[in-house]
Amino acid sequence: MAEIIDRISELPVHIIHAILGRACKYGLKEEAQICVLSKTWKSIWGGRPDVIIFQSNFHNKSLENFVQFVDDSLQPHVEQNLRIETLRLMDLYSPELVSHMDRWIELATKHNVRFLEIGISWSGSLYYTIPDAIYSAAKTLTKLSLYKCNFEINHNSTTNKLQKLIATCPLIRDLKLSGCRGLQNNLYVSGLVNLENLELRACEKLHKVEIRAPKLRKFLHVGSPLHKHRKTHEPESLPCTIDILDGYNTLKYLHLEDSTMTDQEFEYQLCKLTALEVLILKGCYVMKNINVVSEKLKRFSLWDWGNVEKVNMMLAPNLKMFDFEGIKMPFSISTMDPCKLERANLRFYLMPELRNSYIFGDVETSWCNNMQDFVRKFDYSKGLIFVIICEKNNSILIYEDPREILVPPTRELKLHIEIPSMCLESFAYNLIRNLHPKIVSIVPCTESKILQVFRETTKESRMKQYKQSKRLNEVSIQKGAVDNHEDNGRKSCMYSWLKSTSLIERITTFTFKWEKKVVTQD
After folding, report:
1. Which residues pair with 280 in a beta bridge?
2. By the 8 A CB rule, do 406 and 501 touch?
3. What CA–CA distances, in Å, run from 504 to 139, 330, 454?
4. Average pLDDT, whole number, for the chain?
5. Distance of alpha carbon 172 from alpha carbon 442, whole angstroms
6. Long-range contacts of 455-460 (CB under 8 A, 24+ apart)
7. From CA 389, how far away is CA 439, in angstroms rounded?
8. pTM of the model
9. Residue 232: which pLDDT band, with cuts at 50, 70 and 90?
């Protein structure tokens, strides 16, 4: 009988560690499966440098089982004196874990942890207080990510824990704080000469952030909105001043969300950031008129904007990607030249109180003209495809031929213009699978590729069973527009509009019938 050779066990240890690292959410089931793969993998698994554990994987297990699993995962490092490169304890929903977490963090610091992440999912106002043992990682800690942790000063100390942490751990390159409290109004980030990424999300009572980080490449700040109904009213956010005092020549990515920064404050900060390539502004309702001067900027995104009056791209010669989501259209070809853009995502929505009373076509002529002028200005010779999505009608209009672009007269639209980064087959497949449209109308060019691709993709889509809520039951193809009747039986507004345009002669329409999949319990 031929000898069975275990080739898997002959792989270098670092490669096996990399394979194990692909499985991000470790649990009892995954451990059992990996341990039977080969003779060697069980011991390698036990001594893996990256310990990543999600309590949510133990929802049907007792707390004792979870604690034992974490203890067992860390024990080989104690017995063999192995380094713990990474300790990530995520989705922790049991407050009873506090004493165990203190112990696990202390153990990780003793074993030279580099990356520590704590994710708390406790309900209500419960927070986890970071133990003093974390200061022991001063010479090794390079990445720290904390969610719903408490830095408040206790009666035994007068020093802010976060400020002490920043002063104690100078090697940190990546610092992320989400939903934390006890930052004591003002946060001064200085002394972290290696800091490249700083993310602050909805941290309580944070009034000022001052940053001195000469190597900073990415900064993300999400304010604390005081009003929960974002789309009903413009929320008031907790005022927070942001001052970037260093890293002008290195910062490439800036994301501000729910910020109270004014137009003047924003322009003052932006003009200093000479290396900026990505700028994302979301829900910054205080800003009304945005002027952008940034020679290296490649991507500019404006999400969730209700009241911005004007966006003026005064100087952005390298801009390639533009995203916008809002009520108004604050840009035009006079304030932004789209001819160099390679991708654009535009979404327009109505205020909630107007959605039920809004009538398709009830839109100013100037709005339609501005929109059509803007989308026609793109350089379609690059291979750009223009997709219009009407969510209310569950229909899609695709322009492969840009000679005559018409935009439906409605304020509820998604417009997507891009050079497909993937093959056309994947582009069509993803549109069908992700959006589940009732109708896809295509305006093809003379030698259409996308028309043929859709024909082939719809055949494949019927054969494939998606792991989603709907199954594609039937597809029909015909020339001209096809009506997908609204719930009241009347002809859809989208259909009526298409019938009134010159596009009707050139359109090919795909009609999709979907059925809900019945989910069976095992």
Report:
1. 255, 301
2. yes
3. 69, 31, 19
4. 84
5. 52
6. 456/425, 457/425, 457/428, 457/429, 457/432, 458/432, 458/510, 458/512, 460/429
7. 10
8. 0.86
9. very low
